[in-house]
Amino acid sequence: MIKRMRVEPISTYLERYRQRGVAHPVTIANGFVYLSGLPPFDPQSGEIRPASFGRQSEIVMEQLKTCLEAAGSSLANVIKCNVYCTPGEQRFATFNAVYDRYFPGNDPSRIFMFIHSWPGPFDLEIDCVAVAGEPAASATA
To answer: pTM here?
Structure first.
């Protein structure tokens, strides 16, 4: 069974930004939660406004957390993140500092990819896959 979820206010922000149909940023299927890529929507207005790369990183990570929790999962259950950002000398280090706060100790598998540009005033988008349900048990090698 596949379940597509709206998560407010993020779904409304996505619809306004994309200017097309209903947005379901979360899909749950076969025990996994799939999150669509999310740009850094301003938490109060839903607009995409210029902000420092560090602030954009924080906003996107908070949105991921909100969507995962709405799906009954959590950041502790994330198994893979795809991070896409525009080039910049300090982007990797800046993002890692924020990412490490949200995934202390047991961070998920990740790809960090530079892209040419976005159709908007932002530099970052992240999607992820998580296990549905309660936080996964930690395993260390």
So the answer is: 0.89
